Amino acid sequence: MLIFAASDKGGTGRSVTSANLAYHRALAGDDVCYLDFDFGSPTAAAVFDVVDARQDTEDRGLHAYLIGEVSEPARIDVWSETEHQVLRFPPPGCGRLVLMPGDVSGGEFATGEENLRRCVDLLMTLYYEFDLVVIDLSAGRSYAVDMVLEATAQPEMSEVTARWLVFHRWTRQHVGAAASLVFGKRGILAGGVDRGHDEEELRNSIRFVRAAVPDPESPLWSQVSPTQSAWMRKTDGDLKQLASNHGIGYSQVLGSVPLEPVLQWREQLITDEDVLDSQIANEATWQALNQLAGRLTDDKYWEQA
Amino acid sequence: MTAAPGQPARSVLACGEVRTCLLPSLQALDRRAAAQLLRLRADVDVRISERPTMYVLSPEVLTGVDCRLPTSNGSKVRAVGTVAARAALTEGRLLQSTAYFSLPAAGPDIRRPWGQYLVRPGLVEPFGKLPQQAAAEGALRGAGRGELDLGMIAEGLLAQLRRHALLDRRVPFKSSPTKLRWVARREPEGERASLVSFVVAEGGLRTMELRLPEHIPAASAAGICEDLALHDWLLTTVQHMLDNSRLGTADGPSVVEALQPVVVHLLHLWMPRAHVDPALGHLWDVLEQKPGFSRQWENLSRRIRDRLALQAVATPNQELSAR
Q1: Which of A238, A251, A281, B301 could staple A262 via S-S, CB 3.0–4.6 A?
Q2: Which positions in chain A touch B159 (Cβ < 8 Å)?
Q3: Does the distance separating the beta carbons of A69 and B145 come in below 8 Å?
Q4: Is residue B76 part of a domain?
């Protein structure tokens, strides 16, 4: 299965959350590949803590592959290349976790027949090889989004299950922006239909992920004044109403990830050690990520709303 | 020592790369479909043998090259000629593509008209003298940018075949492709072919070094390499499936579900040396002794059958106790 991770704005935690989902699935025994299609600012190497390995693959990344400079994009085996103390020792029986990095020097580029051909070939090859392929796309209606919309519309990819996650923060601006990224005039849906996707089918393969959501009921906020508390509840309720008005209400949401300092500041994978041993990350975050990872392939959450 | 134009040059080195993958099709292809898939040229027939396993070999296609050879010591050797590529399908299930070429000890310092290269299919001539050791090591290490990239040619052919309209582009289970890079140094005639090394590296890469007497064509070397690559792929793939945690701790129908593809699609494919040049069949003996390819395969297939047998014993008991 292919999972495309998109967001309207930067800073939504798209990369770090989708990387954590890939990690959870690999722990559960799936073979997972993570592609950094964020051509403007590839960050995945830092998230998986493979910065050194990344330097060795300089200029042999996805960008160089798509423009035809190398025959295959570089692969980094996260378990064996990472400098992260915990990731180096994955539990027995877990699946493979492979990162295909972007190129630092690679910016956006014009779409062409050849690039598209290579993109389809790559996605198909990975689809045959991995249980789950996570593709992290640049923010907004970027070239990367257009390219994968075009690629997945090709007849040879008709049998491939592709799903979209749209990440947004839990604010008024982000809710509106996420809705317009999908349903807007120049949105993913319209762009997909232009390229030959079936509208209904594409709509049903898109779900939203609310990131950095403060939970008014959380013990974090138990010390706030009653006025603040009431205001938080009210605002949260208003946002839910707003999301629902924008067509990204409850039924369209795959899950939410709580506000988590470790995700916000460190932008790295959260391991069980962070939760249980050093306890720098919240149990609730781990649970949310695990739940979200499970729902990626659970058809119940992808049925017609 | 420069071969005079028109005179066939004796090769001192042959290099190749084999890619092995599962055919993206839910059903294994039958003989007719396989022949249609591998019909890369209209003028040459596909070769089919049905005993002891169905094996279909495509005609060779040529790719003209004019670029630097990969070398281990950084010496820049320009080479011109043609690389041969071919594809094989075993039991309508495993698809392989190979790109390979031979190198003479030295070539002319100027580029000749294309016609002269075309009459020597699969021969690539260096400009000047060939640094044999560096070229052999370079071929095993793989090509850098702008260097002669056999992987690209093999992968290109594989990609073309996987796009074929005959295939439904669905796989019965997930599996990783492997690549095997090989070099064969030429020995004087009369010597016996031998296997110098077979190395299993990271990321699905295998490398192999051979010594090959002059009278054995490079195509035969490509054949034994394909045979070894195919069996190595089987071992790698089945081992990976057994290592997976979902199988390790699983119980009940999920075991049957996980092992079913191995039984249906892979267990019957083990048939070493089935379509190998008899002059090279003995190269298998080395690998049978150590590490013991067939021993490992027997062990794996026994494990699978035992797991399934245990499951079969347990199932009726559970059903009885549920009543």
Answers
A1: A281
A2: 121, 125
A3: yes
A4: yes
Which A positions 28-47 lie with beta carbon below 8 A of chain B? 28-29, 31
Query: Residues B96, B186: one domain?
Result: yes
Smallest Cα–Cα separation from A271: which of A26, A20, A10?
A20
| Gap between the Cα atoms of A6 and B89, Å rounded | 39
Most confident region among A38-42, A129-133, A158-162, B258-262 by mean pLDDT:
A129-133
| A80 CA: distance to closest CA in chain B (Å) | 10
Whether residue B220 is contained in a domain is answered as: no
Nearest CB to A156; choose among B163, B244, B245: B163
Is the entire prediction scored with pTM above 0.95? Answer: no
What total number of domains does chain B contain? 2
Residue with tokens 């923060």: A169
Distance CA A301, CA A286 (A): 20
Kindly report the nearest CA distance between residue A70 and chain B, in angstroms: 7
Smallest CA–CA separation between A92 and chain B, in Å? Answer: 7
| ipTM over 0.85 threshold | yes
Q: Which of A29, A71, A125 sits opposite B245 (nearest CB)?
A: A29
Q: Is B129 among the domain residues?
A: yes
Instruction: Check CB contact of B165 with chain A, cutoff 8 Å.
Output: no
Residues B62 and B188 in one domain: yes
Facing A129 at nearest CB: one of B159, B163, B177: B177
CB contact under 8 A, A29 and B244: yes
User: Which of chain B's residues have a Cβ under 8 Å away from the Cβ of A31?
Assistant: 174, 176
Q: Is residue B241 one of the residues assigned to a domain? A: yes
Residue whose tokens read 């025994």: A29
> Is B139 found in the same domain as B273?
no
The verdict on A71 touching B (C-beta cutoff 8 Å) is yes
Both tokens assigned to B66: 């004019």
Q: Which CATH superfamily is domain A2-216+253-296 in?
A: P-loop containing nucleotide triphosphate hydrolases (3.40.50.300)
Residues B170 and B239 in one domain: no
- Report d(CA B305, CA B69) in Å as an integer: 48
User: Are residues B197 and B277 both part of a single domain?
Assistant: no
Clarify whether residues B294 and B204 are in a common domain: no
CB proximity under 8 Å: B 83-112 to A: none
Residue A301: how many other CB atoms lie within 10 Å: 16
C-alpha dihedral (B276, B279, B285, B286), degrees to nearest 10: -110
Q: Does B235 touch chain A (CB under 8 A)?
A: no
Interchain contact, B203 vs A92, CB within 8 Å: no
pLDDT digits (tens, 9 = 90+) for A242-290: 999 998 888 899 999 988 888 878 888 988 888 888 888 888 899 999 9
Q: Is A68 on the interface with B (CB under 8 A)?
A: no
Other C-beta atoms lying within 10 Å of the C-beta of residue A19: 27
Q: What is the 3-state secondary structure (H, E, C) of B81-103?
A: EEEEEEEEEECCCEEEEEEEEEE
Judge whether A58 is closer than 8 Å to chain B, CB to CB.
no
Rounded average pLDDT per 10-residue block, chain B, 323 residues: 54 97 96 96 94 96 96 94 98 97 95 93 96 96 91 94 93 95 93 94 93 95 97 95 73 82 94 94 93 95 90 70 56
* Cα–Cα nearest to B62, from B157, B178, B179, B165: B157
Q: Which residues of B touch A129 (CB under 8 A)?
A: 174-177
Are B153 and B302 contained in the same domain? no
Same domain for B199 and B149:
yes
Element (H, E) at A198: none
